[in-house]
Structures
1.
Amino acid sequence: MSNSDEGQGATIYEVAQRAGVSIATVSRALRNTGPVAAGTREKVLRAVEELSFTPSRLGVSLAQGRHAANGIVFPDLSGPYFAEVLLGYEEVAAELGRSVLILSTRGRAAVQDLVRDLVGRVDGMVIFGRTVEDALVDEIVRSRTPLVLLARDPVERADAVSSENTASAEALATHLLGHGYTTFALAGDDDRGDVTQRWTGVRRVLSGHGIRPPAPLPCELTVEGGYAAGRTLLGGNPGGKPAGGRRPEAVICADDQVALGVILAAEELGLDVPGDVAITGWDDIMAARHARPALTTVRQPMRLLGARAARALDELIKGTRTVPNSEILPTQLIVRSSCGSHPLEEK
Amino acid sequence: MSNSDEGQGATIYEVAQRAGVSIATVSRALRNTGPVAAGTREKVLRAVEELSFTPSRLGVSLAQGRHAANGIVFPDLSGPYFAEVLLGYEEVAAELGRSVLILSTRGRAAVQDLVRDLVGRVDGMVIFGRTVEDALVDEIVRSRTPLVLLARDPVERADAVSSENTASAEALATHLLGHGYTTFALAGDDDRGDVTQRWTGVRRVLSGHGIRPPAPLPCELTVEGGYAAGRTLLGGNPGGKPAGGRRPEAVICADDQVALGVILAAEELGLDVPGDVAITGWDDIMAARHARPALTTVRQPMRLLGARAARALDELIKGTRTVPNSEILPTQLIVRSSCGSHPLEEK
DNA sequence: TCATTCACTGTAAGCGCTTCCACCCTCTGT
DNA sequence: ACAGAGGGTGGAAGCGCTTACAGTGAATGA
């Protein structure tokens, strides 16, 4: 720490000159690749210290032909779901010595270009659901960029990690049937693959019990979207009547945020939850536990999802594994009070 | 789209060869820098198309001496606060043509090295609160890397963006006094600069009313941390009695997550909120509105915080502005029911 | 004592791009 | 008809690093 103003960073040449050696030796000394005499190493390290030298990442990457970074594309960062996944992803990536570049697509005009740019900056990518259109996904796969698809049905020659949807949806629907409900509504459908799977599970159970499954009411997967959907489904729309003419006994929501919005709408319409209408979510975000009433939902392992994606990507990048792999993580039905009263309520 | 297997991406040399021109011309044609005959441009573009050429980001960056990317360091991505800020940040950064690299420090061993690595990958950095120790911040400043500090007291020669804390804390405390409370507890103190400012505001008001301000009970700024703090403050600790010997009438929490935790603890201890104890948060995260009871809190413009930081950083990087700047965004007291009953309750 | 070996070190060729500079060749103005 | 002005282009020098490859000298074994 001799120089308090190091300016814009020294290069390996200056270090070499100061240490009286060649740049090759400096590189070797720093990366422990190839032999370096103890004395020489000493001199190099001192010069490095004195100049507070840090190798230029750009130079290193260009020479090595790798970025030591990977990217992730998601629709939105608002709401806990994606944040949690990102958390798990970043954690593992860091552990594996990779930086993380993020790209959120919501409301973005030139998604294609942004994604292409991102691809050029990383060794591998994770893409969430249907944020990127199929043609581009295909282009990425063909460019041999390691790719992991998250929460989406697999694609040829790319990995996929997602959490179980259909079976847990069946469990959820079965539970609701156990409450005796016979009229249902589905809120939220964003063309997201995982949501579609959930509806499939629900439909299957309802059909199996002779109930004609309702068409999902599309809405944005946010509290606001859920609120709007809630007004429509529960009768607050201009017509004063619910869509189907009759108010459903239970509203199954695509995720927790939608459910929270529907609860707000119900409250505003003077309906009691779950007395007048049962409401369920999906994800088990923090607010689900703290909501009034607490939300019955399906917990998915959000962090783990990100973590697994990061590991899968690492294998692909390192070439440890070359055959594509598809992983499905288990979920868990969490019964709280929003779906109706229970003798012993889970907290 | 002639070739369905492009392999690992063509270089500018191959494009040049195919177009029958020099790489200099290809570069000029692509970046519109310098004159290129119409016919030539045509040939180049065709070759680019045929090879589906994308300039290597590494090459471009190395030649231009810029990354077109910036970084952000935050303690944790769990919880809505940081996610929201990140959202605003990434949005503006993308708009300005910069990628975003993220680094979360919680539970990370070699933070220093990770941060240094990050610095080497970007044109500028945003650092949250006290995630990075002062010496390193100083080192970054000296290295002339554009730097914006978020939610933290300014440092010489670096920008700072934060939201107002002290005055709104005074408003909050004043409001609570208006309810007639005389005994208070403060929950949460993570050495975060912004929290300290909040306590300062609260203390000032309490002192001004002849109330001896309590020492904050340190706890992690999470729901779990808040729960633990709540048990201690409200009497659920092994001793069976609150810390001060007497249960406080109001618990002012460092943020909403802590408040939610304290509410859980209160509930578990059979206490009514706000009947037996009033509780307030800070941030106005989504769950605050949906909690039972709904949380009185101070809303801070989380997205805007990120957005402003991104813009400030951009000015610094572009050199549009060279003098450091410090910006403080306004906050707003949101009164809901957790602090006591009100004639007309805000929703 | 001499041919080998081997620990060290330097030279230089990339990695893929941008951009200064020089060059050539049409157009102008006179 | 001729100097001068540009438009259009290629050559080549970087940007900062890694890493064959080719030395150098000292130590080894016979």
Note: The two ends of chain A are 56 Å apart (CA to CA).
2.
Amino acid sequence: MPELPEVETVANGVDARVRGQKIVRVWTSGKPQTFKSPETEIAETLTGARIERVKRVGKTIVMDLKKGNRATAGKKQVLRSAQDDNSNFSAQFLVHLGMTGRLLVSQAEVELPPHTHAVLSLADGREVRFVDPRRFGRLSVVTAEGGYQGPGVEPTTVTAEEFAGLFKGRKLAIKAALLNQSILHGVGNIYADESLFRAGIRPRKQAGKLTRAELGRLHTALQQVLAHAIELGGSSVSDYVDADGVRGFFQLEHKVYSRAGEACLDCGAGLKKIVVGGRTTVYCPACQR
DNA sequence: AGGTTGACCTGGACGC
DNA sequence: TGCGTCCAGGTCAACC
């Protein structure tokens, strides 16, 4: 499942391949659910734009776009006056991968995979393709001042103090709090379980009742596990594939996720499976108190 | 308003 | 074998 490290891996991979490219044509599938902005608006915004860079905000891939006058100069200087001249109109294309979404860069000759929902044709003949069998992914365009900031706090850079403050007075389970994107954005089921294991904390413990020491351990564990996963190129559970089609390999490092019933790698106890915040949760009853 | 639950999707795993 | 059922989970709307 694409969580923060996977999304970052994809964003970096796509950035390295398409930065500076101009989008000359856009095709969308017409499946309404996939498009958070109207398809016509997406097509209009992207067509003719230059890709300034591709990055990650939370679990969202953000493509910074520029529709400057220079890029189109000489092409068709129609009678759009003052507005266009100093427009340097900038916008952002947001790609949320959902569960099974992939953002691929391919030669146009390569056959379109099934479940392709958007194709951005680049000036050099390649295409950026959004493929998503399960259709939990979402595409949109925004023009917010200062750019898209995401719904919550960035976990990779949040300080220990700010991190602790996020959970003050919260009555929900710490696992549910970690998954709540308006608190922290980017953490999903895998890294929530992995960081709670490494911090030795029960997933069901009330977020507001964590001790100072526990919050400190969780902050450290979360940032370490995310950094490690980013380093390894993100997880590749089931259907995640990065921009090159190369699978990541962080799944080799999972200590609890999807290991229910198996022995804890630290103490040998049987790992337990429960449901927290509507999500399957695996933890070690001996190591996590 | 904070917290919880279920719907949205489809492919793959599993059971009989 | 093949069919049916269940499960996966990110996010949002609806509900408590």
Note: The radius of gyration of chain A is 21 Å.
